[in-house]
Amino acid sequence: MITMVTRFKVWAFLVLAVCTLTFVGLKYAALGTYVGYRDYYVVNVELPQAGGLLEYSDVTYRGVSVGRVGPVRLTNDGVVAELHIKKSAPKIPQRSAALVANRSAVGEQYIDLRPDTASGPYLAAGSRIDKNSTGTPAPVTDVLKSVSDLAGSVPLDDLRTMVDELGIAFNGQGQNLQTLLDNGAAFTKEADQHAEPTTKLIVDGEVVMRTQNEEAGALKSFGHNARLLAKQLRDSDTDFRRLIAAAPGASEQFAGLVRDLDPNLSVVLANLLTTSDLLLTRVNGLQELLVNVPKAVSAGSSMINDKGQLNFSMVTTFFQPLPCTKGYGGTTYRNGLDTSPGKPLNTAARCAMPASSGVNVRGAGNAPSGGVPSPARPGSLLNSPAGAVLPGALGLPALSSAFASGTGGASGANGASGESASTMSDLLGLTGAGQLTGAGQLTGAGQLTGAGQ
Fold first, then answer.
1. How far apart are the C-alpha atoms of 374 and 387, rounded to whole Å?
2. 97 has which bridge partners?
3. 166 pLDDT exceeds 80?
């Protein structure tokens, strides 16, 4: 006879078995879909072909399983696969690519969802991923066929020759190959240590390449002009040959001209040093003159019309700006008809207004100037030994002692003693004192007088 305890155990076992089977059926056998229970939402994916994808294949998002593949239906232009994504899975952006990939070498396919952004909108029930955002692997048959075609396209005789040549090339080169590998490892290590500068170089190179791309038109124009120049040089080949043939004769004539002008040319060039020093301190004024002279010439030519008549007008601007009066207080007006003895000349009279005052500042002290040249040292060349070299580009020898003492300089010029200056400096007379008087003796400040003039 079955007792009450035994009956209770049997009923408890039956209830536990039913609950277990129900949980297993709903959770793992997907029996809940038949009774209206779903723990997932459906997303449709359009594919050009199945690519080996099967129902119940895995669905991953960023490499993590988030669901299973549902039914795969055939359409007019491809297939549509249902993705059963778990409701507990993280939100998946709608802008995601669905790629059919191989999980292993045996061809186990699955769908991997790869988002383009981390923000919404997100996939929901009824969402669809169009064909443009999907991809399938190449069919194995196509891969095998391509490999077979590649292998069949290789000429066997040429392949055999290449293998033989490679064998000959690497025969006995083990040590060299080992050295090459060692150096390659060292190079890779060094490159890894300098990865940051290399990266910076690549980034900066992008700027350079962008600049070159922006200047593509200029580079193209430069290439076109260079081609025209090369064409012109080719067309002028005869003229160039004639010029090259005539160059030696011209150079000989120029050398003869220089010899004929020696030593007078050196004297002129040396004397121009003084002129250049004077002009150097007046560069600003010369620049102003050279800028305004063309304007004055242009204005002067426009004053005369075609009939030879002079057309010009005068604008009185005496008080624009106002004249300078500060600094002339010690000077009194004196009538020009007054011939009586007057006060001493006021040598301190000058314009004491600054140039930025806006008045007409006058006086040589306000003229643009580069300064005063350094004064020469008296006797700087007279006390130098014979043969010393002058500073500067001329490199002329200094005065000889005979000329410095005044006994030999004039004799070469007037022929009295038959002696001539042996150096260019004998003719220049360049010294710190700088004046030739009498028979060529050096005194004073840079003039030639008397017999040496």
1. 24
2. 114
3. yes
CA dist 46 and 134 (Å) reads: 7
Give the pTM. 0.34
Query: pLDDT at residue 225 above 80?
Result: yes
Q: What is the 3-state secondary structure of 339-381?
A: CCCCCCCCCCCCCCCCHHHCCECCCHHHCCCCCCCCCCCCCCC
| Average pLDDT score over the chain | 77
- Pairing state between β 78-86 and 64-75: antiparallel
Fill in the amino acid letter for 22. Answer: T
Min mean pLDDT across 111-115, 201-205, 397-401 is at 397-401
CA distance 447 to 427: 13
d(Cα 277, Cα 371) in Å, to the nearest integer?
A: 11
Rounded alpha-carbon distances, angstroms, from residue 222 to 207, 228, 232:
21, 10, 15
Token look-up 């919404």 returns 120
Give me the long-range contacts of 176-184 (CB less than 8 A, separation at least 24): none
- Asked if residues 20 and 59 have their Cβ atoms less than 8 Å apart, the reply is no
Query: First-to-last CA distance in the chain?
Result: 164
Residues near 20 by beta carbon (within 8 Å), at least 6 away in sequence: none
Three-state secondary structure call for residue 196: helix
If one counts every other C-beta atom within 10 angstroms of the C-beta of residue 430, the result is 23
Number of neighbours of residue 434 by Cβ within 10 angstroms: 19
pLDDT value of residue 230: 94
Greater confidence, 43 or 380?
A: 43
The answer to whether 390 and 430 have CB atoms below 8 angstroms apart is yes
Helices and strands (H, E) in the chain, number of each type: 12, 10
Distance in angstroms (rounded) separating the CA atoms of residues 368 and 283 = 8
pLDDT of 433 strictly over 70: no
Q: What is the per-residue pLDDT across 120-133, written as a single tens digit (0 to 9) for each? A: 789 998 899 988 88
Question: Is residue 94 over pLDDT 70?
Answer: yes
Of how many residues is the chain composed?
453
Would you state the structure tokens that stand for residue 175, as one six-digit string? Answer: 């040590």
CB 67 within 8 A of CB 86: yes
- The answer to whether 439 touches 449, Cβ cutoff 8 Å, is no
Cα separation of 388 and 193, whole Å? 60
Provide the pLDDT confidence category of residue 118 given band limits of 50, 70 and 90.
Answer: confident
